[in-house]
Design a protein that fits this description.
single chain, Rossmann fold, 25% strand, binds S-adenosylmethionine
Amino acid sequence: MSQGELDAARAHLPAEVTLLNERAQALSIEAGTISCVVSHMALMLMENIEQVLGEVRRVLRPQGQLAAVVGRTFLLGAVNEVYLSMLRPILKEDAAPLPFGDRRTRTEAGWTELLELGFEHVQFEDVDVKWSPLPDELWGALTGTYDVDRLSLPARELLKARLFDAIAPLQQSDGRIATGWGLRLVHARAA
Ligand SMILES: C[S@@+](CC[C@H](N)C(=O)[O-])C[C@H]1O[C@@H](n2cnc3c(N)ncnc32)[C@H](O)[C@@H]1O
């Protein structure tokens, strides 16, 4: 639904690929015409996920596949809890709560419940994208993630200072931190 992202995609894709600017809750695609629906880091952000999955099921052919990568743990390793425990109090002080997405998209049990209607052979795979950044590289990536991007400049600076202090004991001899992104692949077939 983001024209900016669709423009970026258009620049890379062959002309015969059709791009649609529309919400996943209401697709213009004809029922039963799609073999495979793939989604990367998007379903866990969407409101009314039951309607979204209803649309996915509607457009898929019987036995058509859904393969979706969604968030699992956020950062891998010890740095995750350290980071979240620094972020939470600063976020509470600095930015209004902005809940989005359906909690059920965060767990396997939640997905099993969501896919009960209309899907079968539900499978999960943990996908760990390992990465060993220097603190500045980690910070650069975090500033592009939800919630840090909403913080005021002073709140960001405070978070950065506290985070760098807290992760110092986690740095390896080369200064890097063993972490990465903890993702989940959800795979199911249309019943
Ligand atoms: C974190 S970005 C991921 C983008 C891309 N798949 C990637 O991995 O780089 C989430 C995407 O979900 C899209 N999105 C969020 N809610 C949506 C909805 N209800 N319908 C369609 N797209 C939606 C946003 O426009 C954004 O492009």
